[in-house]
Design goal:
disordered N terminus; 3 helices; mainly beta; six-stranded antiparallel sheet; 322 residues
Amino acid sequence: MARLLRIVRVCITAAAIALAISCDRSTERGGEPVGVEPAAESTVQLGAPTLDELRNATYSGIYDEPVLLIDGRHEGDPFVEGGAARPTAGLAADFRLTGDLDGQGAEEAVVLLWESSGGSGTFNYLAVAGRRGGEIVNLGTAEIGDRVQVRAGRVVDRAVELDVVQAGPDDAACCPSQTATRTWALGADGLTAVSTEVTGSLSLATLEGVEWVLAMFDRAEAAPAEPEITVVFSDGRIGGRSGCNRYFAGVVDGDLPGDLAIGQIGATKMACADDVMRLEQRYLATLAGVTRFGFVAGRLVMTCRVENAIHSMTFVPREPEG
């Protein structure tokens, strides 16, 4: 028994010496064990800035001094003491693109800004913001132009592309008619215009190929998510779902770019709950009064005259499945 205990002690001692020699050799290169990879540092990324963060960020390139938006809006001092007119800027609601624009591996956010000094014009801007050192930083801002309408946008190959309606060579400032795709890239000097490709003229054909979903009955009144109300334009016709039934009508371009006239509206004859039928009747009556269309930050806006009052309905494009 005593001899067995001595053998066990010798084995334990030999193992301890071998382990000590192994550990000593493993730290010969700067204290890191040979053959053992050092623990990876945490590289958690928060992604592109959110809309809530972008509504409360600082932007340069609009005025001489940077402006801080509070809940998506900035108001400067009146031009004349006690006057109502003042410089005003803001973030276009619900427009946000994301992508790695600087090639550094993290996504930036692209937004639209607007600025008005109290006149008839409204200048639109494109802005890029990203996370730098834990802060939201405006990396570049570029002017799009006065009363330029943005139909759609996307990030492609580290560049920002916008489909716009802008003033053509013979257009009055009120009524832009030229459709184009414009491209900007982010570099060391901020956002730089890369190209402009004129694609045509504003007409009802501009609205085709998209199913539009009603989002707002008026500027401050959201449409219900259910039942869904839609409109589709195709070859001089419109149709869609009006809440309970499907409807259809003819439509033609008007005299000025963006003008239109809708013919007599027909519909199927299904019956639904009273609140749904009231919603449908309201929509169809408003649709019959539509006289003009345009785009605001990727949304379709139809201007309507109902009982001698001007209203608007706002539609969003249905996102493709997948």
